[in-house]
Amino acid sequence: MNRLFRRLETGLATATLAMLPLSAAIAAPTIALTGPASVERGAPFAVQVSALDVTDLYAFQFDVTFDPALFTASGVTEGAFLASGGTTFFDGGTIDNTSGVISFVFDTLIGAIPGVSGSGVLARIDFNAADVAFSSGAFQLTDAMALDSSLDLVDVALRGQSVAIPEPAALSLSLAALAVLGASSWRRRAAGSVAREGR
Fold first, then answer.
1. Exposed site from 15, 47, 95, 126, fewest CB < 10 Å?
2. 164 with 98: CB under 8 angstroms?
3. Does 173 lie in the same domain as 100?
């Protein structure tokens, strides 16, 4: 009898260990902001709001915050992911470039149909970078909510994005050239000083 219990314990332990990699491989549903790592000063760019590894997504809403000193939002358009499940009703929310908030962006499928599953773009937000350099600003999702086709809340993780406005390439080259000129000038002065001391 003891031998039987030991075999059962060993079998259960082996089965549990075998399932660990499978559970670790299952990703949590996420709503994420994705965009360029850096943009040129004064240039337009887009940030996408994407659903990752969702199941039966029927509707969603979210706000986006950003640094209004660095970025200006110009519009929000619907992504293709939710609409791939059927007819939708989308609203791009309200843009407040003074406070740096886009509030109450939402989208929902219409009718008694299942939600969409997988990953895809929920919305695209168009921005313009300010005419500044050496700066970096964060884009964050807030007040996000997702519903399944039973109108039950879906627990989702949120992920933001940072975008940098680096110095212009011409300025970088100018600074590098000045550094090289300064170094060669210092070497010439040092060589002249050594020559004078040698006399």
1. 15
2. no
3. no
> What pLDDT shows up at residue 133?
79
- State the total domains in the chain: 2
Tell me, yes or no, whether 59 and 154 share the same domain: yes
Splitting the chain (199 residues) into consecutive groups of 10 residues, what average pLDDT does each group show? Answer: 45 42 61 94 95 97 96 97 97 98 98 97 97 88 96 94 75 44 53 54
* Residue type, position 131, single letter: D
* pLDDT given at position 172: 42
Give how far Cα 191 sits from Cα of 13, 23, 27, 181, Å: 76, 68, 64, 15
Q: Which residue from 38, 35, 59 is spatially nearest to 124, judged by alpha carbons?
A: 35
pTM here is 0.71
Cα–Cα separations (whole angstroms), residue 16 to 26, 62, 109, 142: 16, 38, 39, 37
Other beta carbons within 10 Å of 50: 19
Could you tell me the residue range of the domain that residue 181 belongs to? 168-199
